## 1
Amino acid sequence: QAHLMESGGGAVQAGGSLRLSCTASSSISLNGVAWYRQVSGKQREMVAIFRGDRSIDYADAVRGRFTISRDKFLKTAYLQMNDLKPEDTGVYYCKTSAFGRELWGQGTQVTVSS
């Protein structure tokens, strides 16, 4: 069954770093993949996207601090997060498209304390 699984979340102090991973099941290739985050009570927002044409884009709030990448096997995507701020706190999800539909992971919690 097609699925995504995030890992790497945790609790850090402001200024710290975390690296999130998104692993795809065997039936999926991460040609295009995006990372989103959601704060309780707010809409889910995109923070980074790696498109199928290899173009990359970031939300203004994270540009220069976060880096999205994927491995050459198109099975794992990463989100390197540096200089973390309390406002980066939230649940982080990865998303891709497979079999004509959007596919989301279950999310991983990131908590940044001041």
Note: The CA atoms of residues 25 and 78 lie 15 Å apart.
## 2
Amino acid sequence: QVQLVESGGGLVQAGGSLRLSCAASGRAFNVYTMGWFRQAPGKEREFVGRISGSGGITAYADSVKGRATISRDNAKNTGYIEIDSLKPEDTAVYYCAARLLANFRTDPSTVNGYTYWGQGTQVTVSS
């Protein structure tokens, strides 16, 4: 079992920055990939980015590439995503998720690629 708790959401003006955290507990933190997703009202949950267990490999969706940085501190069992130059279209509930070895046959940029999810944190970007 993995428990994930996101924090750091809020209301931000367009052009600003936000850093979200994902605190994990349960299984050894450094053995699984952590993904970040978001879901806007009326839309499907979409991939934002991911980071490997060691933190050495990251990948980003085109929508945030160049604006987002995903990192993790395995000593603190915490993952992070920072998004700069925020746009109103970044408004969504942001989720972190854990990808276990059991998911290896699934696409890591899809919801099905992850087993455990946090409850989400709301990010609202005002224009």
Note: The chain is about 0% helix and 50% strand.
## 3
Amino acid sequence: VQLQASGGGLVQAGGSLNLSCAASGRTFSGFAISWFRQAVGKEREGISVIASDRSTYYVDFVSGRFTLSRDDAKKAVYLQMNSLLPEDTGVYYCATGPNLRANYYRDEGIKVSAFASWGQGTHVTVSS
């Protein structure tokens, strides 16, 4: 599976963006899809995951502001980001991972090492 993230841009604090992750190649319906972000000078961190059963998990600092959805027919996953904060600035990546329910990732964390296929990132800049 090859992934391509898009939809990033420059937005003011409080604004919204909708990121897309499009897949090519064989179907990704059997994978969990996660979004990671990486700020300048910081490590890449997992922020949300959607399993094939559409269960979702969000880390605390995006919960209530970000919403995941997936359309397996279109081979796409979407990340709706609302109430954006300057600290949301970074490069956002999508990746495929083991088809485990979201509560597994809630318990174990969304770890970079668990995700195999990565898309090219999309830049998000939130101005204050």
Note: The radius of gyration is 13 Å.
